[in-house]
Amino acid sequence: MGRKANQKWNFASKRKESAIKSPQEDFFGVSCWIALPTERIIYSGLKMYMVESKGGAIVCMLLSLFFLGTWPAIMTMLERRGRLPQHTYLDYTITNLLAAVIIAFTFGEIGSERPNFISQLSQDNWPSVLFAMAGGVVLSIGNLSTQYAWAFVGLSVTEVITSSMTVVIGTTLNYFLDDKINKAEILFPGVGCFLIAVCLGSFVHSSNAADNRIKLNTLSSDYKLGTESTSTTITNEEIPDNVGTKDLESGNVTARKAKAGTANYLIELENRRAIKVFGKNTFIGLAITFFAGVCFSLFSPAFNLATNDQWHTLKNGVPHLTVYTAFFYFSVSCFVVALILNITFIYHPVLNTPRSSLKAYLTDWNGRGWAFLAGLLCGFGNGLQFMGGQAAGYAAADAVQALPLVSTFWGILLFGEYRKSSRRTYILLVSMLFMFIVAVGILMASSGHRK
């Protein structure tokens, strides 16, 4: 009996060893996990959880795409309801940091094969930490900038421009930083498709702006319409008082709601929102948008350098930062920058937004739950993007920059964007969304595997 038991134990050990020695088996998809013996699964549970398969990386990117495309819609909704962007962003940044802490103390603490999160906090890895924190700084500034760009340029167009700049600049940088592990013959045609979608997006914006001018021309001649092609020059004084009124203390709109897509709806929105855009040149919004795009294009390469140390800044023997540790430092710097800038903007507002105070912020619970949700979605979305990028290459993970697909969907569903627009606008909109879908598929197909 003893000999038979030993033979069974030896047989199980051999199966376990063979499973451990062939990590490439799970590269081509998640399905191969089903065929693995139970010993392989148990072993995986004993080490730090890291996404290593191509299938797992794609799942991370798809979830990230949904999360990162949804939180801007929530922030836009709150601004359109009249909540000050400074208040909203302070709430958002708290839960954004909370998401990183949750990821660090769960995924970052499972098992002991790699240096876990706690042990890496005391290691001599400051060059990598600084890269991670630099990425958090530029992302925080970019996110803060887009809060104002959404009001001036609109949710869909802002996301299209910033995402395109991220893909063109950031993806190219990540491709070379990752030692070209992504398939260039697939990756760069995907970047090209993204650029085509960007051009279509700008045409959508131009066509929709023309549609809005026609709608506003149907109003009484008492309300003037500017002739510029890039902005509607109705001033706040020219907005009729009976379109919508607002209780500034409670944030409740007391007037009847106009139908989405009508001229009355556009003016009612201006009365209600926190950032007034009538009478201001759209080029202000475009300048903010392009600035945000530059910031967004740099945060992913900085994070790539933090986790893979391509420039060999760490001392010999010091392990690279894990994704979870780097993301924690990344989010801490993001939080600190957002805290400093938004408290400054509370007392010294920009773009003629109302002045506020910390006391007013603490008592402003109107929409706070939505802002907390936006922070969680953004935090987990960024974390999933980095987890997928570590496995399949950060250039391929930039496929999540097709988030305008999701943002445009929410813009149409929640805010009535493109309602009652012309046939030309609808054709351009569908073409833009189709090209985004193609771009996402191509960028994901370029995924490589980090050795």
UniProtKB/TrEMBL annotation:
Entry's transmembrane regions: 56-77, 89-108, 128-145, 152-174, 186-205, 282-306, 326-348, 369-388, 394-414, 426-445
Membrane-topology annotation of the record: Multi-pass membrane protein
GO cellular component: membrane
Pfam families, A to Z: Ureide_permease
Family (UniProt): Belongs to the plant ureide permease (TC 2.A.7.19) family.
GO molecular function, one term: allantoin:proton symporter activity
The UniProt record lists the keyword Membrane: yes
Database matches in InterPro entries: UPS_plant, Ureide_permease
Annotated protein name in UniProt: Ureide_permease domain-containing protein
Subcellular location: Membrane
Keywords: ATP-binding, Membrane, Nucleotide-binding, Transmembrane, Transmembrane helix, Transport
